[in-house]
Write a structure and sequence with these properties.
Layout (H helix, E strand, L loop, with lengths): L7 H11 L2 E6 L4 H6 L2 E3 L1 H10 L4 E5 L2 H10 L4 E3 L8 H5 L2 H8 L5 E6 L4 H5 L3 E3 L4 H6 L6 E5 L2 H11 L3 E3 L12 H10 L4 E4 L5 H4 L4 E2 L2 H10 L4 E5 L5 H7 L4 E4 L23 H10 L8 H17 L1
Parallel strand pairs: 1-2, 1-3, 3-4, 5-6, 5-7, 7-8, 9-10, 9-11, 11-12
Helix pairs in contact: 1-14, 3-4, 4-15
Bound molecules: 1,3-dihydroxyacetonephosphate (13P) and iron/sulfur cluster.
The site of 1,3-dihydroxyacetonephosphate has 10 residues, from loops.
């Protein structure tokens, strides 16, 4: 039970200390969660932090595939999540049986999977990438190999353009980035003609074509930090704007509405999976340690290899 004499925040911080827990949070978490986290980052930064920690417990505030990565890279730790239902549309789109068939077409291929996939898909892959290291890793693959890329077709198409490398793409997409409206983006650009458009590469090509800068969440944040204060039109999940305002408090950030919303929409760039987590669930899981990420030993071992490859090549 939450003690109403103390704030939830202070109770979480005390529990975290007494249990030697590390709270990791992705930029798409709500502001209150970001503010109690020990570390906030993109998928790659979070994976590295999880791999390196000496804490007894890793409480992962993000989505399930991220917490699985933490468990795979640091298996002796207890990895907890606020809500085990926090999934990802990219992960859902790519089921192991169909993916295994998809990869069978050519035995001499290299299977590169975006980190937004299940541990089972990782186990079927040669190398894992994130949006911040994918370009570099794909460029390092020998030219005589056929590359299969899954599960995000938008990121895949963007990487084909960036690397000049033809890849066979799985047809998955992110429900958040897929639904930004081109019409609304154009309207916003007309309203704020000086604004820079910053976009995550999970967006479709017609939106990326209008972007001034494209990158992972950490790269978008760094880009904002490096600019003099100005207007930014943000084509990614709106949670990251909390950190953008911290690094550039005099800038203005505009979120692009979804296809079916009008221009005043403020919640349409919200990931429903990321937003399943809340402070009460964090408190409860720290008290009860009940929502733990576990997986069969064999799966842990198989999924570790392509993740280790990624860390080596990053
Ligand atoms: P990054 O934080 O690695 O850019 O990934 C974004 C994302 O879609 C997380 O679900
Ligand atoms: Fe998955 Fe998209 Fe949500 Fe990221 S924002 S967790 S890719 S559904």
């Amino acid at each position: 039970m939450v003690n109403s004499n103390f704030s939830l925040e202070s109770q979480i911080i005390n529990l975290k200390k007494s249990k030697n827990a590390l709270i990791l949070a992705h930029y798409y978490q709500t502001e209150d969660i970001q503010d109690i986290a020990d570390f906030i980052g993109d998928s790659l930064d979070l994976a590295k932090k999880a791999a390196a920690t000496n804490a007894d417990i890793i409480l992962f505030c993000g989505v399930k595939f991220m917490a699985e990565v933490a468990k795979i890279l640091n298996p002796s730790k207890k990895v907890l999540v606020p809500d085990l239902q926090a999934g990802c549309s990219l992960e859902e789109s790519c089921q192991p049986q169909e993916f295994a068939k998809f990869c069978q077409s050519n035995a001499d291929n290299i299977v590169i999977s975006y980190i937004n996939c299940s541990a089972e898909i990782k186990a079927l892959s040669d190398i894992i990438v994130t949006s911040s290291n994918a370009e570099k890793i794909i460029k390092s693959v020998p030219l005589d190999k056929e590359v299969i890329f899954a599960p995000d077709r938008n990121l895949g198409n963007y990487l084909i353009k960036q690397t000049g490398r033809n890849m066979k793409l799985w047809n998955g997409s992110c429900i958040v980035h897929e639904q930004f409206s081109l019409k609304s983006l154009i309207k916003l650009k007309e309203r704020y003609p000086e604004a820079l458009v910053i976009a995550h590469p999970e967006c479709p090509e017609n939106l990326l074509d209008l972007a001034d800068f494209i990158g992972s969440t950490s790269k978008l944040l760094n880009f904002v930090k490096e600019q003099t204060p100005k207007d930014f039109i943000v084509l990614t999940e709106s949670g990251i704007i909390h950190q953008m305002k911290k690094v550039s408090s005099d800038s203005n950030f505009y979120v692009v509405p979804a296809i079916k919303e009008d221009i005043s929409c403020v919640h349409c760039s919200s990931c429903p999976h990321m937003k399943l987590n809340n402070m009460e669930k964090i408190y409860n899981v720290l008290v009860n340690e009940h929502q733990e990420i576990t997986m069969p030993e064999q799966l842990l071992i198989k999924a570790e290899q392509p993740l280790k490859q990624m860390l080596q090549l990053s």
